């Protein structure tokens, strides 16, 4: 199943709780990061994780190993089940997040290539491929790869094998869920759900793409179930 992960980037605690409650039945996880945590405080994580869905911390950690470890420790003491870090900071910093996540029974995802137009300035030309190799070396659980460039995400799939791919850029950034859902393990959707007049209905629409998992005929190997 291709999971549907809500990027809950709203600006208040009340909006976050309300949208999480309405959309929860159609989601597989919720991702929160700076917009919501800076607005509502980290206790919103305790509150959302109590709702039962896995909660992913999107602080795109990019620091020296000790600081990365401190951030990850804080994350996993607030009910998160996964953390996202950057890969360009190098092996030791990525390992700090991976090891801390695994110490807490959680997962660590590494950004290999971002979804916005400017991402090509640095991630193309071999960097994304090198980060993908680092992901395999460090034992990270998966990568973040762009729904806005399915061909790049498919290429990254050939490098990381059956590790998970979570893919943002669907909806508001123009990514087509039908083009990406067959390649990845989860689509990350924000504004197209939380800015909708009917967030539950929008989430339900995206949930239809769950069944596309592993259907991309160009994949060179079967996906993990
Ligand atoms: O465009 P939206 O509203 O659907 O939101 C997309 C979310 O995914 C938002 O939280 C943004 O910060 C995040 N994101 C990207 O859009 N592109 C990326 O390359 C990476 C991320 C991200 O979440 O990285 C960690 C998953």
UniProtKB/TrEMBL annotation:
Residues binding substrate: 9, 31, 115, 190-191
Against Gene3D superfamilies, the record matches this protein to:
Aldolase class I
SMART domains xrefs: OMPdecase
Q: Where is the active site?
A: 58 (for ompdecase activity), 60 (for ompdecase activity), 63 (for ompdecase activity)
The biological process GO terms on file are: 'de novo' pyrimidine nucleobase biosynthetic process; 'de novo' UMP biosynthetic process
Pathway assignment reads: Pyrimidine metabolism; UMP biosynthesis via de novo pathway; UMP from orotate: step 2/2
List, in alphabetical order, the Gene Ontology terms for molecular function in this entry.
orotidine-5'-phosphate decarboxylase activity
Q: What is its EC number?
A: 4.1.1.23
Under Pfam families, the record lists: OMPdecase
User: What residues does the Orotidine 5'-phosphate decarboxylase domain cover?
Assistant: 3-206
Q: Please identify the protein, giving its name as recorded.
A: Orotidine 5'-phosphate decarboxylase
Q: Which organism is it from?
A: Methanospirillum hungatei JF-1 (strain ATCC 27890 / DSM 864 / NBRC 100397 / JF-1)
Kindly list the organism's lineage.
Archaea, Methanobacteriati, Methanobacteriota, Stenosarchaea group, Methanomicrobia
């Amino acid at each position: 199943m291709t999971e549907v992960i809500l990027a809950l980037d709203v600006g208040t605690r009340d909006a976050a709780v309300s949208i999480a409650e309405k959309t929860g039945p159609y989601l597989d996880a919720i991702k929160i990061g700076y917009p919501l945590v800076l607005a509502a405080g980290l206790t919103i994580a305790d509150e959302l994780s109590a709702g039962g869905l896995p909660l992913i911390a999107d602080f795109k950690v990019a620091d020296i190993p000790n600081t990365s470890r401190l951030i990850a420790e804080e994350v996993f003491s607030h009910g998160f089940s996964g953390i996202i870090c950057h890969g360009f900071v190098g092996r030791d910093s990525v390992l700090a997040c991976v090891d801390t996540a695994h110490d807490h029974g959680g997962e660590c995802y590494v950004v290999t290539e971002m979804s916005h137009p400017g991402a090509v300035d640095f991630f193309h030309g071999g960097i994304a491929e090198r980060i993908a190799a680092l992901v395999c070396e460090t034992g990270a659980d998966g990568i973040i790869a762009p729904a806005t460039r399915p061909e790049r995400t498919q290429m990254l799939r050939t490098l990381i094998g059956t590790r998970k791919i979570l893919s943002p850029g669907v909806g508001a950034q123009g990514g087509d869920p039908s083009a990406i859902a067959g390649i990845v393990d989860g689509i990350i959707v924000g504004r197209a759900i939380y800015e909708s007049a009917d967030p539950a209905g929008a989430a339900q629409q995206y949930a239809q793409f769950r069944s596309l998992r592993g259907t991309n005929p160009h994949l060179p190997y079967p996906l993990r179930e």
